[in-house]
């Protein structure tokens, strides 16, 4: 994905997830050529009891992403038409993280696509005038909203973690194979493209082709997030861009609060400071804006959390569930704009889902370690071990056995492959002393320290290796998040040569300090001393139960 292709400009926070500056199909990351996907519903007929239960799941997951809430009036209204997915089957193998109790982890996926559930382009004028989001070619299949919600088994506080969409991580396919390092949002699109090309070559067409391709995308997203956070995912709900608009249309006006006035031509946001009521078009602009915000994408994540909180507050305080017209409208949105998983126990989930409707949810945005350029894209660097420590300390989970493939850099349980490493500085003088510091860090991980020196200036960091040093080279390349290492006859056998470019950013040191601790009440399963403080996250946490003010 090449941000510089955008006719709308570039930002250090990456392309707009719901805006006009996302890449078109055919960009980097294995995007497919432009096409018009076919029907991808994948719906199936169920008994009234099961359908009603899944509708409860839909309203307690999708409406947390779009709004929030559960109403068993679904028993009287919905008997068919829900879109379901079996994608969870792909990530439940022996290496999957295991639960310590009966809590539920629900992943909310916001799919950035200017297409309807059938894969058809949304009307051009609607996208331009109402969504203010550019053409249908732009959005493709990135997952630009990822929120993991932990629902405790004992009915305690629900803890939600937003994953910034530009986090640069190891992405996976549903079968556990690695896609390489990409932005976390690209796992879906990469898998969709590969599957679409594969099945199309086999003669699969129409609805079956679109359904299989999207299922591969869901599997990849679930596998990537589960490997990244090392916590099990029990359920998921996927909603498209149109769903935000549709839920706002049913529940309008939506009250929000801004700390400062904003005006942004890209998203269409033009709001004064303070509390205000938004129509559907304005609500989309509110959750999409990133230009002109100090925190860019991270501030937009807080906007999305505030939107959820505001709509939840309206559902609870204004008796929406007693308004049959609006409640019917919500179910129409669920059937049109939502995909939910087919693996859940109706009664078990119903016992726990009430926490999602009672203002008892706290949203945290997972921290980043800095910004960098990878593959000509602006990305967020992340300290995966720190993030896993934060998440697991708050929800009481522990890392699963995993396959160790999420990070090639040696960890306490992974021995550095034998090799002597030389580090050259080719940053053009912008990273003085970086070669010596990086060699010291690599020696600390168990590699044999070689020499340091300077190299001709270059933009990108590269890793070369001689005979017998491929494994070590791959570990080091993964540590530095660079392209695949290259065999070179100029590098002696048993040695790895690292040439730092202008894009080099030193990875977090192994064994870095753990997150700050707090005496705040932890979620179920954790001890007070293990709960991180608010400053361990990216920006202020957003609490449901009212109308939070955000940037």
Q: What report would you give on this structure?
A:
Helix content is 31%, strand content 19%. With 551 residues, it is α/β, with parallel strands linked by helices. The strands form six sheets. It has an eight-stranded mixed sheet, with helices on both faces. A five-stranded mixed sheet has the order 17-16-20-18-19, with helices on one face. A three-stranded mixed sheet has the order 11-8-22.
Helices and strands, with pairings:
Blueprint: H1 48-65, H2 74-77, E1 83-85, E2 104-112, H3 124-131, H4 136-139, E3 142-151, E4 158-162, E5 168-172, E6 178-183, H5 186-201, H6 206-229, E7 235-240, H7 241-251, E8 254-258, E9 262-263, E10 270-271, E11 274-278, H8 280-288, H9 297-317, H10 324-337, E12 338-341, H11 346-353, E13 361-365, E14 370-374, E15 377-381, H12 384-395, E16 420-425, H13 434-444, E17 448-454, E18 462-465, H14 470-480, E19 486-487, E20 495-500, E21 542-543, E22 549-550
Parallel strand pairs: 1-12, 2-7, 4-13, 8-22, 16-17, 16-20, 18-19
Antiparallel strand pairs: 2-3, 3-4, 5-6, 7-12, 8-11, 9-10, 13-21, 14-15, 18-20
Helix pairs in contact: 1-11, 5-6, 7-8, 7-10, 8-9
Key attributes of the depicted protein:
single chain, 551 residues, alpha/beta, Aminopeptidase, Alpha-Beta Plaits, 2 domains, 8-stranded mixed β-sheet, 5-stranded mixed β-sheet, 14 helices, 22 strands, disordered N terminus
């Amino acid at each position: 994905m090449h941000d510089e292709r955008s006719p709308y400009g570039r930002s250090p926070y990456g392309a707009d997830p719901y805006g006009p500056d996302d890449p078109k199909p055919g960009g980097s990351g294995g995007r497919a050529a432009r096409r018009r996907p076919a029907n991808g519903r994948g719906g199936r007929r169920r008994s009234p009891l099961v359908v009603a239960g899944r509708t409860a799941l839909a309203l307690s997951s999708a409406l947390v992403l779009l709004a929030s809430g559960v109403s068993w009036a679904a028993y009287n209204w919905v008997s068919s038409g829900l879109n379901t997915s079996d994608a969870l089957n792909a990530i439940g193998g022996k290496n999957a993280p295991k639960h310590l109790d009966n809590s539920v982890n629900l992943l909310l996926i916001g799919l950035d696509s200017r297409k309807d559930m059938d894969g058809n382009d949304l009307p051009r004028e609607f996208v331009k005038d109402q969504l203010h989001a550019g053409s249908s070619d732009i959005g493709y299949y990135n997952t630009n909203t990822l929120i993991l919600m932990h629902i405790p088994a004992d009915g305690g506080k629900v803890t939600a973690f937003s994953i910034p969409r530009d986090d640069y991580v190891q992405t996976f396919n549903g079968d556990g194979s690695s896609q390489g390092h990409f932005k976390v949002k690209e796992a879906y699109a990469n898998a969709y493209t590969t599957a679409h090309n594969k099945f199309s070559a086999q003669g699969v067409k129409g609805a079956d082709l679109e359904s299989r391709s999207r299922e591969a995308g869901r599997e990849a997203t679930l596998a990537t997030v589960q490997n990244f956070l090392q916590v099990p995912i029990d359920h998921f709900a996927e909603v498209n861009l149109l769903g935000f608009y549709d839920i706002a249309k049913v529940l309008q006006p939506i009250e929000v609060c801004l700390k400062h006035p904003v005006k942004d031509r890209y998203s269409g946001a033009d709001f004064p400071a303070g509390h205000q009521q938004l129509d559907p078009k304005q609500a989309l602009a509110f959750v999409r804006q990133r230009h002109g915000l100090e925190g860019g994408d991270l501030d937009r994540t807080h906007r999305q959390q505030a939107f959820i909180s505001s709509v939840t507050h309206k559902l609870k305080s204004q008796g929406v569930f007693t308004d049959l017209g609006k409640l019917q409208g919500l179910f129409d949105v669920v059937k049109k704009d939502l995909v939910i998983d087919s693996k859940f126990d109706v009664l078990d989930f119903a016992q726990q889902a009430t926490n999602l409707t009672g203002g008892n949810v706290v949203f945290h945005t997972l921290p980043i370690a800095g910004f960098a350029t990878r593959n000509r894209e602006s990305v967020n660097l992340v300290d995966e071990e720190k993030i896993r420590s934060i998440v697991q300390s708050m929800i009481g989970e522990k890392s699963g056995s995993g396959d160790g493939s999420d990070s090639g850099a040696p960890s306490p349980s992974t021995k550095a492959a034998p090799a002597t490493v030389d580090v050259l500085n080719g940053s053009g003088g912008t990273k003085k002393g970086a070669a010596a510091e990086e060699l010291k860090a690599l020696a600390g991980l168990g590699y044999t320290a070689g020499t340091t020196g300077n190299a001709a200036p270059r933009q990108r960091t590269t890793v070369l290796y001689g005979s017998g040093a491929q494994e070590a080279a791959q570990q080091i390349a993964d540590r530095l998040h660079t392209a695949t290492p290259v065999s070179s006859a100029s590098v002696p056998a048993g040695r790895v040569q690292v040439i730092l470019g202008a894009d080099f950013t030193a990875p977090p040191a192994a064994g870095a300090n753990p997150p700050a601790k707090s005496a705040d009440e932890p979620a179920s399963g954790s001890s007070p001393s293990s709960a991180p403080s608010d400053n361990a996250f990216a920006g202020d946490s957003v609490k449901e139960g009212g109308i939070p003010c955000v940037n």
